[in-house]
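Structure, all two chains, one model.
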Amino acid sequence: MFSAMDVSTSGLTAQRARLNTISGNLANISTIVNERGEQVPYQPRYVTLQVDEGVSTRGGGKGVRVASVEHSTAEPIVRYEPGHPLADERGMVAYPNIDMTNEFVDALEATRAYEANIGVMEISKDLGRQTLQIIA
Amino acid sequence: MFLNNSTLPVLEQVVAFTQSRHGVLAGNIANLNTPGYQSRDLSPEAFEASLGEALAARRASHSPGTAGVMGDWRIDGDPGLGLTRLDSQGAAHFGRLDTDDLAGVSDSMKEILYHDESDVSLEKQITEIAKNQGKHNLAIALMRTQYSQLRSAISENVT
């Protein structure tokens, strides 16, 4: 019962990490200067998940963990804005290649997965309670 | 005696442990945003190992009917020396007998373990609290059945 909760917790942690990167991507959807002040548009980050052998149940259920946070290799979107103070000699400004719809769908998926893990955890707790009622 | 041979003292230790641990875990939640805070925990494994040892010692020393008080002719000041163990053949064995094996169990709670974790994960802490609550409720439920048995015996009435 308790190991099932650990597996669910690993899912919760992983999905929260995913949501955090998505919120970072959306927050930086118009960021064209990086943290060192160089004119490099923000590269969206994506979390990759991996099976965690360290967290497992007796029934063979495996936990999950964040394998890495990958930077997107997509080319930035270049827009013609001649009046922009950071425009190049051709009047072009590079913006991050982030699709807001995509990010929102990802966020929704992560939220649903998070809720599903909470649901499983509630069931695990309920199983424990039911077992207790046999004794008491 | 009923209270010494029942599992009530064991359950009492379990409840005491889970309550202490709940306090520690609640502190972790409270300090979720405290810079440099390291999450604290009481080790259930250490507690269970200690409890297991105490139970083994108790079973060996005075399982029902094998221990008896042999009067005050033994050395004063140590209640353990006033006791004698009888083996299965009824022969008396002299020597110190631990009167309260469970006393050592609570020592496992005194040491708070510091885990050097860079982040206090809210989900992890909540899960630990839920698991701890499950253990606590189990011990309380078992205690309740024991007390209701005792009450049945006193009132000569099955409730």
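The two ends of chain B are 23 Å apart (CA to CA).
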